[in-house]
Amino acid sequence: MTTTTTASAAGVRVAALAEIPPGEGRAYAVPTSDGTGMQQVAVFHHRDGHVSAVDAVCPHSGGPLADGQIDSCVVICPLHLNTWDLRTGESTSGQDPVRVHGVEVAPDGSVVVTPA
Amino acid sequence: MHMKKKRHLVLVGNGMAGARLLEELLERGASETFEITVFGDEPYGNYNRIMLSHVLAGEDGEESIYLNEIGWYAENGIDLRSGVRIVDVDLPAREVIDATGERTGYDVLVIATGSSPHFPPMDGLRREDGSLLPGVSGFRSLDETRAMLEEARSGHHRRAVVIGGGLLGLEAAKGLQNHGLDVTVIHSPAHLMNQQLDAEAGAVLRRSIEDCGISVVTGARTTGVTARTDDGRVSGVVLKDGRVFDADMVVVTAGIRPNTDVGVRAGLVVERGIVVDDQMRCVDQPVSDGGGGQVYALGECAQHRGETYGLVAPLWEQATVLADVLTGSDPDAAYHGSKTSTKLKVAGVDVAAIGQSGPEHPDDEHVVFSDVRRGLYQSVVVRDGRLVGATLLGDTRKSAALQQAFDRGLPLPEQRVELLFDLGSGGGEASVEDLADDAQVCNCNGVTKGDICGAVASGCTSVKGVMDATRAGKGCGSCKEVVSAVVEHAIAAGGGTLTEDASVHWYVPGVPLRKDELVAAIREQHLTSVSAVFAALAPGGAEDAKSKMGLTSLLRTLWPTEFVDERDARFINDRVHANIQRDGTFSVVPQMKGGVTTPEQLRKIADVAEKYGVGMLKVTGGQRIDMLGVKKEDLPKVWADLDMPSGYAYGKSMRTVKTCVGTDYCRFGLGDSTALGIAMEEKFQGLETPAKLKLGVVGCPRNCAEAYVKDIGVVAIGNGKWEVYVGGAAGASVRKADLLATVDSPEAVIQLTGRFIQFYRTWGNWLERTYDFVPRLSIERIRLVLVEDSDGMCAQLDDEIDAACAAYRDPWKEREAPDAPGRFSAPALPLIPLPLVPKRPVGAPGGTPRDLLPTPNPVEIVSPNEEALMAGAQQ
Known about the structure:
heterodimer, A: mainly beta, 7-stranded antiparallel beta sheet, 10 strands, 0% helix, globular, B: FAD/NAD(P)-binding domain, FAD/NAD(P)-binding domain, Enolase-like, domain 1, 6 domains, 5-stranded parallel beta sheet
C-alpha cells in the first residue's frame, strides 16, 4: 500500500478510507495550496459514507479537531466543545471559521484531499 | 504614710462566672487592693463548660478547654483552694466554712456556685446510699464528661437514652452518637429546645436531629430507671405511658437548678436563686459596717429581677458590673438584666434564638418562613415597629443583623420579610439589573452580561437558546441561575416573552425524549447501539454529535453485556482512555486504590515519567499521581511500561475512592477506612455513571479524606458502624452530603453504595452530578427506596450493579489490540507551536532535568512517514 502523501493536480492521497473508522476523524499533513509548506487537515469519515475535511486546528485555542465527535453536519472540538459546520466551516458557537478543504474517495478507496 | 491594708476577697465557686469576675477584677487593678482567695470544689483550674460537648464528641481534647490552668492563679497572686467545698457562711463573723469545718475570714464575699443538673424524680434513679445508679449521669462537669467518654469508647455499650431535649441534651446525644451508640432523646415538653424555640421551629429541629440518626420522643415523661439484676447497672428507662427504652447509658439533661445551698444556710434571701440587686449584692443581708453589705452573688446561682440565667453572655455582663462595683472603678455600675440570645450549633444544626420565640401580645407581628425538608426555619417577632424576637434554624447568616436590630431597637424595613431575606437590590448580591454590561457572568467561558443581552437582541428567546449561542453556563454550570436571570431581565426589558425550549427536559438534545421515556423505548425496541437509537428514535433518523456521549453512557448502563460499542460515539477521552489537555497531549493516571501505593509502583512511575519526558508529575486531589503531557502515540507504550490498570481519571465514571489512614497507624481511627476504600474502588472501578463520581472513606468524623463533600462519602463512627453520605460536592458548588443511612459492616457499606450508584445510573440525567440528583429526588425519598425498599427494587438494583461490575475490563489492556487502525497514531503533534503549556523551569518543583526536555523546535510539521503509518496499521 502507498503510504506517503503524493501531491498531484487532482489532490493529495492521505489514506485509505478503511483506515478511518466510520464516524471518526484523522489528521494528515498536506502541502499548502501554494506549495510552499505543509499544513494539517482533519479528514472525517461520516457514518453515511461521505467524507469531509477542514483545518485540523481549532481557531479558538488550538484544539485537535480530528479528535472531535461528529455527525453528518458538525464537528465538536474536544477541548471546549465549540462546534463548526463541516460543510461551510462556519462556527455554530460563535468562533472564527475554519477552512473547508476539498476531499473525495477515489474509486480505489483512497481518500484524496485538495487543499483550499 | 503606712500602706493601707488589703481587703480580703473570697470567691466561692471557680466556674465560668467566677473566672470571668477574676479577669475583670485583675484588669481593674484589684490585686492592689484585694487579697483574693478562690474556693472551687472541682480539683481543676477553671474550664470552659460550653466546650464539654466538644470533648464528649471527641472533637477536642480536654486540655484545649481550660480557660485558666492552676498555675495562672499563683502567677496573679490568687490563692486557689481547688477541691475545697464551702458549705456555709457565718455572716456575722464574716467567715466561710468548708466541708471539714475550717473557717476562712473575708471582707468581701462573692458567691458564684453555679448550678447543678436537675434530676427529675424517677423511680430507681438512685441507689440506697443516695448515689446515682451506675450508668446514669448528668452532663455538667469535666468529671462527668470524662466518665461518659470512657464508657462510650469502651465498646461495651450500644444504646444510650438522653433525658431532656434542650440544648445540652442534644449536644450530649450527638456526642454519644459520634462514638457509635444508638441514641434516643426523651423530652418531656412537646417540642425540642422549648426554652428557645416555638413549636414549629422545634419540629424543624426535630427533623434535622432525626436525619442525623438520633431518635426523638417528645411529650413523654420518664418516670423510672431500671437496673440489671446481675451488676446493678442501668438497663433502661420507663415512661409514664408505660413505654420502655433499653439503655446501657442514661444521661440526664432535664435542666439545671441554681446551687443555692450556701446562700440558704447563710440565711440569705433565696428564691429560685440567691436574690441580688442591680449591683449583684445579696438583698436584705445583715449589715455590720454601714455599707450595703459585703456579700455578692453572680452567675447561674444568682436571681436578678426574678430571672436566673443559664447562658454565658448574661454572666459576663454581671461580672463586668460587679468588678466595677468592687474595685470602685464605676461605683454606680448597675446590671439591668440581659436580653437573652443564643447562637450556636446544636448537634450540627445552626441555631440562633434572640429574644422571644413567638408572639406574646395580640398586636405582635410574626413573620415565619419554614422549609421542613431543608431543615430551615426563620421567624421574627415585631412589636410596635421594634424587633423583639428572632429565631433562625439551619441558616443563621442573618443573625448578626437581627441581633443588632434587637439590641439597639433599630427601625425595621417596611417589608418585614427583608429582615430574613435579601430581596431585590437590598442585599449582598447585586441584582442583575445593576450589573454593568461588561460584568462577566460566566467565568468559565468568559461571557459578559453584554454578550447575553446581545444574544437576546439577536433573537434568542429562551435561556437554553442564549446558553447555546454564548456558551454561558456551559462550563462548571454554577452561574446558570444568574444567566437565567439576566436572560429573563433582557427579554422583559425588550418587551419580549421568555419561552422554554422543550429540549431542556430531553436526556440528550438529539432525541426528543425524557430519560424515562428514552429508557423505555430503548428496552422495548432492544436498541443496543448509539446508531440504532438515532435510526429508531431521532427525528428523521438523524445522528447528533452532541448526543452521542450521553447515549453511550446510557446504553452501557442498560446493556452491560449486549452493548454494541461504536467508538465514534465516545468522547476522545473514552476512545483513548486518557484525559485530553489543552495542548492536545494527554494525562495518564494509573489506578492507586484508596490512595495507597508501594515503592515499586512509585519507582516504576518515576522511570516511565523520565522515559517519556512527562511534562509534569502531579499528585491529584483524588490521591493518585497524574502524569501530564503524554503524547497520544505514546499512550500504549506508557501503559505497557507502567503495567498498571487505568485510574479512570478521564471518564464520566467512578473515579477514585479517597481514604484516610484508617486504623493501622492513626491514633484516632474508628474503622479501617483504607481497606474499605480499596475494596470499594476495586468493586466499582470504571463504572460509567451519568457524571463523574468521586468517593471518600474516612475512619472517623475528623473527615481527613473529605468524605462529607464526596458524591458518596463513608464515615466510620466506631463500634463497627459506618455512615453513608450521598450528594456531597466540593467543586464549583460546595454541598455537604446527606446522611443516607448508618450501617453495621463494610459489606453493608458496599452493598448500599452499589445500590445508590445503580439507582443514580438509572434515574440520573446525563451530566447531572449527585449534588443535583439527590436534592432533586430528596434524600428522604432515596432513603425510602434504597434503605427501606419501599418500591421493592433493591434486589434488582443489587443484581444490576453486580452485573455491571462483573463486566469490568481494564481499558489500558487495549494497548495490545487497539480497536481501530491509527487509534493511537497521530501525525506529529503539536498542531500549533508548543509549548502552549510551559515546561516547569529546570530545577523548579515539577521541573524536568534539562536532558529530558523534548527536542527544541518542536514546531516543525512532518509528513507521516512510511514507518509511522505502517506501525499504525500493524498495531
